Amino acid sequence: MVDLAGVMDGPLAAMRAAAPDCERASLHPLFAADNAPGTVAAVVDSGGPVLETVRAALTARGNTWAETTAEEHDRAMETVQAAAHTAVLAFGLAAADVPDQFHTPVSAALFDVLSQVTGNDPRVYADIQAAFDGADAVAEAAARIADADAEAFADLYAEAGK
Q: C-alpha distances in angstroms, 99 versus 44, 95, 102, 109, 117?
C-alpha cells in the first residue's frame, strides 16, 4: 500500500491500522509535474519486493529516492513548502510591476519563482498552508525586518545567513 501525500505521519498510521500485513510506504514527490524528475521523499513503513519495484521504477525515470522518517519529512515541509511558498506569494503581493531593465539578479530570480508557484493549482498551495505551520513565521520575520533599525537589521541579516 502506497500513498502520495504531502503529510506522512497520519496516512502511515492509517495504513498500518488498515493493512498491518502489507508493504506500506508514504511517498511525496517534492516537485510539480512540470519539473519532473525530482526528489521523492519516501517513508518505507514496511518494505518488500513490491516497494523495491516502485523505487526502481521511480529512480529509472531519473528521480532521486530520499528515504526519511515521517517526523523529519513533516517538520521539513513547514520550511520547504509552507514558509517558502508564503514568502514567494508575499513577495508577489508586495512587488510592483517594474521594467525588466531594472531587475537585479535577486529580483529576477524571485519573479521567476513567483511565476512557477502561481502557474500551478492554487488548491495545492492552500492545502499545504492548511497542513503545515510556516506562514506565521514568515509574517513575523517580515515584521521584524520592517521594524528594525540599522543595528537590528544587521543582526537579522547575519541571523538569516546562518
A: 49, 12, 6, 15, 21
* Distance in angstroms (rounded) separating the CA atoms of residues 103 and 113: 14
Q: What are phi and psi of 134, to 5 degrees?
A: 145, -35
Are 121 and 70 within 8 A, CB to CB?
A: no
Q: Which residue has the cell 506569494?
A: 89
Q: For the CA atoms of 92, 93, 98, 102, what is the dihedral angle to 10 degrees? A: -50
CA dihedral 105→136→69→24, nearest 10 degrees, is: -100
pLDDT tens digits along 130-146: 999 989 999 999 999 99
- Tell me the helices (H) and strands (E) count for the chain, helix number first: 8, 4
User: Which residues, at least 6 apart from 148, have a Cβ–Cβ distance to it below 8 Å?
Assistant: 155, 156
- 21/135 Cα distance (integer angstroms): 39
Q: Give phi and psi for 102, each to the nearest 5.
A: -100, -5
Q: pTM for the full model?
A: 0.85
Is the model's pLDDT at 15 over the cut of 90? yes
